[in-house]
Amino acid sequence: MIFEETPLKNSYVISLQSFSDNRGWFTRTFCKKDFEKIGHSEEWVQLNHSFTVTKGAIRGMHFQYPPHSEIKMVRCISGGVLDVIVDIRKGSPTFLQHFSIELSAINKKMLYIPKGFAHGFQTLSDNCELIYHHTMYYEKNSEGALRYDEPLLSIKWPLEPTDISERDLNHQYLTRSFEGIDLILS
Ligand SMILES: Cc1cn([C@H]2C[C@H](O)[C@@H](COP(=O)(O)OP(=O)(O)O[C@H]3O[C@@H](C)C(=O)[C@@H](O)[C@H]3O)O2)c(=O)[nH]c1=O
After folding, report:
1. What is the CATH number of domain 2-17+44-174?
2. Gap from CA of 21 to ligand 1 centroid (Å)
3. Could you point out which of 30, 40, 102, 159 has its C-alpha 20 to 30 Å from the C-alpha of 5?
4. Peptide bond into 136 cis (omega under 30)
5. d(C-alpha 81, C-alpha 103), whole Å
6. 41 C-alpha vs ligand 1 centroid, how far in Å?
7. Closest residue by CA, ligand 1 atom 3
8. pLDDT digit string (tens) for 169-181?
């Protein structure tokens, strides 16, 4: 596994190393020892899997408020997505900056998303499947979100949005008073 820190401190693009032969390939997607090198010691307590039918669909930008802030790791196992994270850590030098990367079944890249980030993606093909690892249990009442079209973020989605959930269309725009997530409370 190769870990490359993104410009947003503590978030990583992880490239997997595949062993190929005539049968196909084999790759490791998690190793406690390797992840300890980037300071990861928490347990994954939930694994989730989503399927999105339509190319151009957007899901996001989601996070959980403290004390349920979580580390997330995402991998696309069918199709491809533009995956986007936004730094909403209070006091962070990269506060409200975002990073995006294509994750696909072909490139097998994973994104490691620390606490205090919002996450979302747009599908670049039909029939996209994503696998998520989470260090916190899903807490409906702690869900938070930014809008995918938030002007303070200026995320450039590559495709015209084709499908967005009612919930995601109803998130509020940020106000200038938004100071971010205080991770001391996590
Ligand atoms: C996220 C989640 C949802 N649910 C339920 C709530 C709801 O009835 C149904 C669908 O939920 P949502 O509409 O929030 O699904 P979705 O919009 O796909 O939410 C996901 O979006 C991406 C961007 C993420 O980063 C994920 O962590 C997650 O928030 O599944 C769970 O039971 N457990 C979970 O962990």
Report:
1. 2.60.120.10
2. 37
3. 159
4. no
5. 5
6. 24
7. 138
8. 999 999 989 999 9
Q: Which atom of ligand 1 is nearest to the CA of 48?
A: 35
pTM over 0.80: yes
Ordered by start, the domain boundaries in the chain are 2-17+44-174
Residues with CB under 6 A from ligand 1: 48, 50, 59-60, 62, 119-121, 132, 138, 165, 167
Q: Per this entry, what is the length of the chain?
A: 186
Per residue in 89-119, pLDDT (tens digit) is 999 999 999 999 999 999 999 999 999 999 9
Tens of pLDDT, residues 5-50: 999 999 999 999 999 999 999 999 999 999 999 999 999 999 999 9
Give 71-105 as a DSSP string: -EEEEEEESEEEEEEEE-BTT-TTTT-EEEEEEET
Separation of CA 48 and ligand 1 centre (Å): 9
Q: Of ligand 1's atoms, which has the minimum distance to the CA of residue 74?
A: 25
Q: Which two tokens stand for residue 58?
A: 């957007």
Specify the residue with its C-alpha closest to ligand 1, atom 2: 138
